[in-house]
Amino acid sequence: MNYGTKARDLLLELKSSDFLPTYNEEAVRASLAEITHHTDELTDLVRAANRQQSDAAEGTNTSSSSQPQIPIESRPSMLLHDASIRRNKRCLLAYHAYRIDKLRNLRWETAGTLPAHIQPLLSEAEIDFFRAYDNLVTSTSLYGLSDYNSDMTPPTENFVMVRVVEGGLGKIETEMCGVVELEVGTMHYLPRGDVEGLLRRGALVQLSGEEC
Amino acid sequence: MPSYYDIDTILAEEELIQIRPSFPFSHLSHLDPESSNRKRRRVDKENVGNSRTSIRGGGHVLEEGTKIKMPMWAVDRWVVLGFVRVTLPGIYGSKMKERLLADPVSVDLGSKNSHYFLTGLLLTSLLQRASQIAKRHRSRSASSPASQLSNLAQSLQLSLLTTMMGERLRRNFDWTLSALDAMEDDASGHVEKLSFLEKRMFERGVESSGAVVRWRDGGCGRIGGKGVMKGMAA
């Protein structure tokens, strides 16, 4: 019996990947086609069973007002088609829910920037979702409720020691320290709020007290 | 019960269960790999012109008592409604129970079924539901399928609890204490034999061990106000 195998394979792909596998549109379409097939089969079985009962009722001249009973021999196949439809649906929903959760978390980690190496793994709808979610968070921040992009972790100090690991950053202007040249390999003691975005991007690395 | 979207629960329901129909099932002969051979022999014997045989109720029939294996999710309703008789999978059978009683630590649950405990939990729940439904219909049947199902569920439940909470758990926790020191002990051989649940417990245990070590290295100190709070107070 190979019911639900494509949908199951989608979930196995998720389990075996580090972050997200490439969106498997072919398997998703195959699962949807299987759902349609089972729906059609189930409809045919129910019609055939009802027709059979109606013919039997006419033959014995019984009242047609009573609800026709589906023969017990026919019920297991109907239940199996129904179970297959629900199974495929559940697998598809779980597959998409997992991917959407990953994208939501990614938005908070990257402050709305979709990394270039992640984009080829996503479907068009997922890319649209990421952008729409980012717009939603940004617009909520703009209403003055809170700046959600400001701190990755609960802040403990106003200043942080950082090392520059990415080239080409040039100079940044800070409120308290003036203009700072960010050359690769240099260390600086800067206001946390001014470098939060670069830390999140990975251009700067925060140093603990032992590394200074 | 686990979430509807939980992937491990969904995969755990893929475990194959051996069942036997309690009456002929129409339209489902394709589930029995041997049925097509039987049909061919019947066709040759009866010299029927077309290929369709044994039509009853409008379709090909899966005969009563035919042994077939199907995923747990596919037979859930059949078991609950009493349409089939269930045999536990081999990994939950008597031989496996004896092996687990004799030497629980050496059994490689990871290769037999990575979701051993979760599948067992779902199977127990299925059997209990079927038993409750069968109890409501006990006046209609001379035999007692309800008690059989209930006994099966209890036996499986006891086996799972004994396996999970016994020597395997103790050995798992022992390994979490020494797993951080890769020079002294290599835990990979132990981890390979673990089921998915046990591996997660092992990983949490290792994290906890690391946290204890870091806390111990941190030593004692005075709790003071952080710069951010002082800045806000000023």
TrEMBL record, chain A:
It is found in: Nucleus. One of its GO terms (biological process) is DNA replication. Residues 63-73 have a biased composition (Low complexity). GO terms for cellular component: nucleus. Belongs to the GINS1/PSF1 family. InterPro entries: GINS_A (IPR021151), GINS_bundle-like_dom_sf (IPR036224), GINS_Psf1 (IPR005339), PSF1_C (IPR056783). Residues 79-139 form the GINS subunit domain. Its main location: nucleus. SUPFAM superfamilies: GINS helical bundle-like. This is GINS subunit domain-containing protein. Residues 51-62 have a biased composition (Polar residues). It comes from the Eukaryota. Keywords: DNA replication, Nucleus. Residues 51-73 are annotated as: Disordered.
UniProtKB/TrEMBL annotation, chain B:
InterPro entries: GINS_bundle-like_dom_sf (IPR036224), GINS_Psf3 (IPR010492), GINS_Psf3_sf (IPR038437). It comes from the Eukaryota. CDD domains: GINS_B_Psf3. Residues 30-47 have a biased composition (Basic and acidic residues). SUPFAM superfamilies: GINS helical bundle-like, PriA/YqbF domain. Residues 30-58 are annotated as: Disordered. This is DNA replication complex GINS protein PSF3.
